[in-house]
Each structure stands twice: as structure tokens, then as C-alpha cells.
């Protein structure tokens, strides 16, 4: 499998169709910290995928560039006024020094070489600019269905996450890149999903992509999920719990 799990045929279509678009709610919170006086000039969205977070960033900046290492993901991103896209890795950004007032990373830090990424983010940020990193993940909980946790354990046993870097950016790592943590907060949000929404979400994740590298097909993965969760949905949408964290750093 490619070292980028999302750089494979069909990944962009599954991502665009299956990922919940919660980004505008997070960016609204971020704006209170990084753009309290109105829109910034330029923002960079690293590992932008199919452009959900890039679109949301237009609320904070007049010009937003989204970059991703998978050209297929960028091909599925919509073209909107004030936005542009470029194929690039987080560790090798094709931009001049001090180009941006805001650098954003959503749901992707765990895929990066952290030291090299932080050096690049710091390089392209203007002094006084901000690096924002946020994530959001499924908590494995379905409202009103306490047995659902057993299903989640079975799912992750069958479809484990591929290796990734864990943990937050340390004070030492940030300081080395001339960054200082200004704000950190946690948030939670519920999403209402049908069974098919839930299947689409899970098959957009790297767990499913890794399983295809072991010989399964997306159709068989989707069928297993669909059949095994049927009793929980019983033809009705259900409320699923998600939570995340926001970290805001300022470039010295």
C-alpha cells in the first residue's frame, strides 16, 4: 500500500461522500482566537483532502490554499472563489517564507513527520501568525444503545487502525519551531446518521483502506458493517457521539 493511505483509487470519492462536514463549527471557534478583527489575508490548509476544511477557512481568510499529498483527493475538491489547491506534502511546502497568516491542519497531524512538518509550518507563517490543529473522531457511542460498544470493539478488532503517530505537540517540539501554544480546548458534537451514512463514514477511513491492502474489497467491508449494525439502526437514523480537540499556536 502507498505510504499515504488515501492515495489510492476511489479513496477521494469515498471520502467526499462519507466524511461528516463539521468543519464550519470548529472554524467559527477558531476565528475568535485568530481573526477577531475580521478576515485575514492568506491561509494555508494542509492535508486538505477533498476540501471540506478549505471551504470552511474562507470564513477567516480572503485567500485560502489547500494542499494534499494525494492528487486524487484534490481532484475531488470543489473550485470556489478565493480558494486554490496544490499537490504537496506537509513536510515540503512549495511556498515562500512568511507567506501566510494562518496555517491549518484538520484530522491529519498523525500522518506527518512531526519535526519536519513543524519546521515547514513555522517557515511559511508570518511572525505573529497562527498554526491551528484540530481533530474530531467517533467516540464509539450511539445514544440509547449501550450494547453498541461491544460492536465497536469487534469492528476495531476486525479492522484495526494502521500505524500512525500519536500524542499532542509537546512544548519542546513547538519551541524548536518558534511556536507557542496560545489556546487549547475540547469539544463534542452529536451526528445523526442512517445506517448507510454510517457505512459510508467507516469505509472512508484508513482502517478500511488498510483492509483492502490485506485482500478484502470495499464491497465486502461495507457488507459486513451493514449487516452487523442492522439491529442497532432498525431502519431509523441514530445519534452517534463525536469529540475533538483544538490547538492554537502563535508564531514568534
Task: Characterize the structure shown.
It holds the Pfam family Methyltransf_11. InterPro entries: Diverse_substrate_MTase, Methyltransf_11, SAM-dependent_MTases_sf. This protein is of the alpha/beta class and 252 residues long. 36% of the residues lie in helices and 29% in strands. The protein contains 10 helices and 7 strands. Strand 1 (40-46), helix 3 and strand 2 (61-68) form a beta-alpha-beta unit. It starts with 10 loop residues before the first helix and ends with a strand. The model has no long low-confidence stretch (mean pLDDT 95).
**CATH T-level topology:** Rossmann fold
| CATH class categorisation | Alpha Beta
Q: Report the radius of gyration as a whole number of Å.
A: 19 Å
Number of domains: 1
How far apart are the first and last residues' alpha carbons, in Å? Answer: 39 Å
Keywords: Methyltransferase, Transferase
Family: Belongs to the methyltransferase superfamily.
Protein name: Type 11 methyltransferase
GO biological process, one term: methylation
Please give a handful of descriptors for the protein shown.
252 residues, alpha/beta, Rossmann fold, 36% helix, 29% strand, globular, Methyltransf_11, Diverse_substrate_MTase, SAM-dependent_MTases_sf
Helices and strands, with pairings:
Elements: H1 11-18, H2 23-34, E1 40-46, H3 52-57, E2 61-68, H4 71-75, E3 83-87, E4 100-106, H5 114-124, E5 125-142, H6 148-158, H7 171-176, E6 179-193, H8 195-202, H9 206-213, H10 218-233, E7 238-251
Parallel strand pairs: 1-2, 1-4, 2-3, 4-5
Antiparallel strand pairs: 5-7, 6-7
Helix pairs in contact: 1-8, 8-10
Family: Belongs to the methyltransferase superfamily.
Domain Methyltransferase type: 44-133
Protein name: Type 11 methyltransferase
